[in-house]
Amino acid sequence: MIDDILRTQCGALTRAQALAGGVTRGAIRHHLAAGRWQRVFAGVYATFSGPVPRQTTLWAALLAAGPGAMLSHWSAAEVAGLADAHRAPAQVVHVTVPATRKVRRVPGVIVHRSRDARRLRHPTVLPPQTRVEETVLDLSQLVAGLEDAYAVMARAVNAGLSTPERLLAAMAKRPRMRWRRLLREGLGDVAAGCRSVLELSYLRKVERGHGLPTGDRQVRVTRGRRRNYLDVRYRQYRTSVELDGEAAHPRHERFRDMRRDNARVAEGDAPLRYGMADVEQRPCEVAMQVAQVLRRAGWRGTPRRCPRCPTSPW
Q1: What confidence tier does 258 reach under pLDDT thresholds 50, 70, 90?
Q2: Bond prior to 127 in cis (omega within 30° of 0)
Q3: Selection from 294, 292, 287, 148 nearest residue 205 by Cα
Q4: Residue 88 predicted with pLDDT over 80
Q5: In the prediction, which pLDDT does 63 show?
Q6: What local confidence, expressed as pLDDT, does residue 246 receive?
Q7: How many angstroms separate the Cα of 101 from the Cα of each of 96, 113, 132?
Q8: Which of 170, 185, 205, 252 is an S-S bond match for 283, by CB 3.0 to 4.6 Å?
Q9: How far is CA 190 from CA 80, 177, 230, 309, in A?
């Protein structure tokens, strides 16, 4: 019985579990004194010597928080694979417990309370944790700004961990949310094909911000046996925009991008390529350049100025 518990809980065990499994109080003291066990939190042990792995620490924090506790916020994002872009200090563990529970202070553990804890909890995944949608929405309320909130949502959808529809349904069940309207709009853009915060920024700051035509997103292009996806395609004007979120690509990816761009030029397609710094710091220059290419290709529209645009004429 204890062996099964230890396998599930990554070697973490409470004093109550040990006693229920037939380990005497004297044996517990002996294991601790001999260094075979170690105390992680009051009444919670790691039943081995040496460094305590992160998974064991997470389980120990849940056990210390008591019945109904689940990983949440940054810690739920960590185990779900969502925390790379917005990583919290590793030594801190976030847990959520039912609002009616009183939890003693546990060093290194941040306790959140919820009146809807049963609904928030994922029904099958271990260690106990909030559903991915609830984790994403929790993080969207903790990050510093709206762009970071967009990034959390886009990351979850791009990784295949959730969908805009599920996130919108979870949002509808929350009575209070910061940036609710803007986040709903952002999820609409994610559903329309924006798969990164850079693509969201391009749509909002370059296209919409300057009245440019709305391009198609994630357009599949097949050449021979090769299949590529174009980030933004202005099909009518034979113009495409590639948005590179990384500051630098590996050598083989740079050559792949070069071959792809050259093939499009040979076919009469005009490819443009921008990075995060271009879109975030110089959206007006990007819009001006895209507008010039589109005009040469036959667009008859007039770009508009945004509040950041220079006073010099387009």
Answers
A1: very low
A2: yes
A3: 287
A4: no
A5: 98
A6: 52
A7: 10, 8, 23
A8: 205
A9: 20, 19, 15, 26
